[in-house]
Amino acid sequence: MGWLIDLLPLNYSDAVVAVGAALLGITAGALGVFAVLRQRSLVGDALAHAALPGVCIAFLATGAKDATTLLVGAACAGLVGALLMVGIERTSRIRPDAAIGVVLSSFFSLGIVLLTYIAASDDANQAGLDKYLFGQAAGLLERDLNVMAILAVVSLAVVAVTFRALKTTLFDPAFAGAVGLPVRLLEVFMTMLLVVAVVIGLRTVGAILMVAMLVVPTVAARQLCDRLSILLPVAAGIGAAVGVTGALVAGSAEVPTGPVIVLVGVAVVIVAVLLAPGRGVLWRGRKLARDRRRTLIEGVLVDLETSIHAGPPPTPQELALASGRPRRAVQRALTALDRAGMLAHDGDRVHLSEAGASAAHAVLERRDLWSAWLEHGWQLALPDAREPDPSDLRGSLGDAYADELQRLAAAGAGGAAGGAR
Fold first, then answer.
1. How many other β-carbons are positioned within 10 Å of the β-carbon of residue 395?
2. Which residues form a coiled coil (predicted)?
3. Which of 83, 326, 360, 402 could form an SS bridge with 305, CB 3.0 to 4.6 Å?
């Protein structure tokens, strides 16, 4: 990874941390998608905590604080934890959430006990093992990056090769089993992928905060896209951006890297939840306000059309009284209609201009067409099971089906009138 470090306009230590954070973000972002979409986000938390005793046992077995050896121990412990969770869930009455809690608490407790035992020993090499709890990105070395890069490339390549099988198992395990896919094996495999992400992230954010790196990129990316093939690279990109940004901010502020990366990720999630196009809270709130305003204006437009046919043009006060709407709401709607050139005034009385009358007739036609759809839509021989838009039924169905719907409604109205006679 030396060539990449040399390309960055940073000093050596900051460049190493930034590359490590990027590798973590890419891997955890892509692999965490499978945990979040399976509604098994806490599996990553359990595996991260389960890796801690593996680090301690690897140190006790070798007596050396070699990063590669410790990560192998973490991976082995994570695999054992993953298999235990699956085994407890499959072979007992314990629910998945309880199985996760059992593995998380037991392995993490064992890790704390082993850390305490090692800290009380006279071995000077044990210094720094507690950093695997919260991470120590500043301690990353170039050889650590090489190991992280290999794990990242291999895991992402495996996901690419098995993508279709993983996608089928993820969204429809019953169908996957029916077509002969090894569903249980694939579910275990998806859990194993989380172990890889955990191993990559232990040195950077630690066991306690690792779950955030598995969940945050997917949650943010999920606000932006719906297709799994797009979600994976988007989540990986967000994870990389969060990791690098958090690492650079932490380096400049001289604060712990792991917590800052997580805080940056949480900020990205908040922004995505609020502002994501089409589904963000503020976006949907603004759309809801526009829809309510349009509904009010159309309602007042129809009320005015009805009042004009029933008698002389009304005043705004008479229109509000006849429609049963609040006077201020009616006044706002009339102001909007006047600005759009749909009203004409006769003293204090209002009536529709030619454009307003045309708009009122269009609204009434849409309402009639929607009523016809609710009553006779089942009779249309549509080529697919579409869900039409109530505000633009003709555009949703097409002119041919809309005309057919009007014909069915007219025939039904004629039959009802004949029966009444």
1. 11
2. none
3. 360
Count of CB atoms situated within 10 Å of the CB of 49: 28
Instruction: Decide: 247 and 18 in contact? Cβ < 8 Å.
Output: yes
Q: Which residues pair with 349 in a beta bridge?
A: 346
Rounded Cα–Cα distance for residues 57 and 77 (Å): 9
pLDDT number for residue 230: 93
Q: What angle do CA 360, 362, 368 make, to 5 degrees?
A: 105
* Amino acid of residue 89: E
Q: Do domains 2-277 and 283-352 have the same CATH topology?
A: no
Which stretch of 3-7, 30-34, 266-270 has the lowest confidence by average pLDDT?
3-7
Structure tokens at 67: 């990063």
**pTM (predicted TM-score):** 0.78
Residue count of the chain, please give it: 421
**Assigned fold of 283-352:** Arc Repressor Mutant, subunit A (1.10.10)
Note the pLDDT tens digit of each residue in 34-66: 989 888 888 888 888 888 888 888 888 887 777
Domain 2-277 has CATH 1.20.1250.20: no
Q: Is the Cβ–Cβ distance between 48 and 204 less than 8 Å?
A: no
Q: Are 239 and 25 in contact (CB under 8 A)?
A: yes
Cβ neighbours for 392, distance < 8 A, ≥ 6 positions apart: 366
Task: Give the residue among 203, 192, 209 at the shortest CA–CA distance from 155.
Answer: 192
Amino acid found at 31:
L
Please report, rounded to a whole number, the percentage of residues in the chain having pLDDT higher than 70: 94
* Nearest-angstrom CA–CA distance, 409 and 388: 17
pLDDT tens by residue, 115-157: 888 888 766 566 666 677 667 777 777 887 888 888 899 999 9
Q: What is the pLDDT of residues 308-335, one digit of tens each?
A: 887 788 888 988 888 888 889 989 999 9
Number of H-type helices and E-type strands within the chain? 18, 2
d(CA 160, CA 86): 24
Two structure tokens written together for 411: 């025939």
Q: What is the domain partition of the chain in residue ranges?
A: 2-277, 283-352, 358-411
Which parts of 311-397 fold into alpha helices (H)?
316-323, 327-339, 354-376, 393-397
**What distance in Å separates the CA atoms of residue 414 and residue 219, rounded to the nearest whole number?**
54
